[in-house]
Amino acid sequence: MAAAAAILRQGGTVIIPTETVYGLAANALDPVAVAKIFAAKGRPADNPLIVHIAATDQLAPLVRAVPPVLPLLAEHFWPGPLTLVLPRAPLVPDITAAGMDTVAVRLPQNPVARAIITAAGVPLAAPSANRSGIPSPTTFAHCLADMDGRVDAIVQSAPCAVGLESTVLSLAGAVPRLLRPGAVTLEQLRAVLGTVEVDEGVTHHLADNQPVSSPGMKYRHYAPKAELLLLVGSTQAYCDYLTQNARVGDFALCFTEDLPQLTLPALCYGGRQDHAAQAERLFGLLRELDDRGALRGFVHAPSTEGVGLAVYNRLLRAAAFQLLEL
Ligand code: TXA
Ligand code: MG
């Protein structure tokens, strides 16, 4: 951790574990260091980064004003998988925020992440450590496969407990707005804040000419090489559809309950109601589809309650919005 912090202080890049996914970190306040993140990922310059802090009092210098609701949100959800979008202070360089007048800030829970941020002594910009467009890394092996030779160091740590990226909530407008669902759920946010709007991009494909609240929404995401189709329906309907339609090269990405009835190769991503397991396994299994040479993947779509909304949101993008109601 001390070695990682030293590299970061000197303007280098280090992949660090967090509780959500591994992040590709650099000093958020150093434009030259942040440019290395964009280069290593092949990330479009108009997609802003999340700034990671290790204590709540590190927020104030990054934003123009700390919102009155911050203590309440921090009490419930920080440290943890919640990112807040707030008006940006001049201290945060343009490149970090991709020129936006807001900045996204998160206080992660993972103790290794926090120890490295603290030892570095600066806030760390860190997008997910995948190459742009493919699923975020949730294990050290994923990071090595994607980024060996493209960063100064990779911290070897445990698989990520959550498995999907943080919830992104904008506090920049009059009403709090969910831009990306995650393990901090819409239901939990509404219980604390009252009204929370859900951005249309969370569950729908935005037309090319529609304005986006979060630039990350418009890019193809989380996509394996296999063509994915999301199937919405009961265990019976899902299994019947696959019995009738599966060809050589097809895989099922299914619930535990579906397994007994399936005859094609199947990867199970959790019990039907076990959204936490689905979140934890999803990205690893999307990579496994490619490793096993899948041509097409038929995904049993999760329900959208609780963490299910985050799983559904990532799958929709991985499937390029191809969805069939059975
Ligand atoms: O869990 C996470 O959030 C992980 C770990 C490493 O912390 N990081 C992560 O970063 O997922 P990234 O860059 O892969 O996703 C950040 C998302 C993008 O969709 C980006 O467009 C959005 O947050 N975002 C960042 N700054 C924003 C801003 N000022 N306004 C709106 N959206 C913003
Ligand atoms: Mg990402």
Structure description:
The chain is an alpha/beta fold and 326 residues long. 29% of the residues lie in helices and 18% in strands. α1 crosses α5. The model has no long low-confidence stretch (mean pLDDT 95). The site of threonylcarbamoyladenylate (TXA) has 28 residues, from β4, β5 and β9.
Question: Which features would summarize this protein structure in a list?
Answer:
326 residues; alpha/beta; ten-stranded mixed beta sheet; five-stranded parallel beta sheet; binds threonylcarbamoyladenylate; binds magnesium ion
Topology:
Layout: H1 2-9, E1 14-16, E2 23-27, H2 31-41, E3 50-52, H3 70-77, E4 82-87, H4 94-97, E5 102-106, H5 111-120, E6 124-125, H6 140-147, E7 153-154, E8 167-170, E9 177-180, H7 186-193, E10 197-198, E11 227-232, H8 235-245, E12 250-254, E13 266-268, H9 275-291, E14 296-300, H10 308-318, E15 323-325
Parallel strand pairs: 1-7, 3-5, 4-8, 9-10, 11-14, 11-15, 12-13, 12-14
Antiparallel strand pairs: 1-2, 2-6, 3-6, 4-5, 8-9
Bound molecules: threonylcarbamoyladenylate (TXA) and magnesium ion.
Magnesium ion is lined by residues 127-128, 136.
